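Tokens as discussed.
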């Protein structure tokens, strides 16, 4: 479970930190973390504004957001299972130590 949750986190980080190519007019878009939001919100007819709008519309945000939403319950269940397993192993070793001390 923890491995799957971490894979979802890696996918979301990959979507945020890697640059990508736009499908329209073959524009090279910077990663969303490194992009300049000022270029997107100014109302001018420059090429920078048009490219920023195009790059913003090409990156699909529901996919990485859905990966993060799915990873939360997976990591919670995985952490609970890992904790229960670790405690079970430690208690079993403690019980074995107690049994060997009685003998």
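Sequence:
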């Amino acid at each position: 479970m923890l491995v799957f949750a971490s894979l979802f986190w890696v996918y979301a980080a990959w979507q945020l930190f890697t640059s990508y190519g736009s499908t329209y007019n073959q524009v090279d878009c910077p990663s969303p973390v490194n992009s300049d939001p000022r270029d997107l919100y100014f109302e001018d007819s420059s090429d920078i504004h048009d490219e920023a709008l195009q790059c913003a519309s090409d990156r699909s945000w529901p996919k990485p957001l859905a990966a993060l939403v799915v990873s939360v319950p997976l990591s919670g269940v995985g952490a609970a299972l890992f904790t229960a397993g670790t405690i079970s192993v430690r208690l079993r070793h403690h019980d074995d130590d107690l049994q060997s001390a009685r003998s």
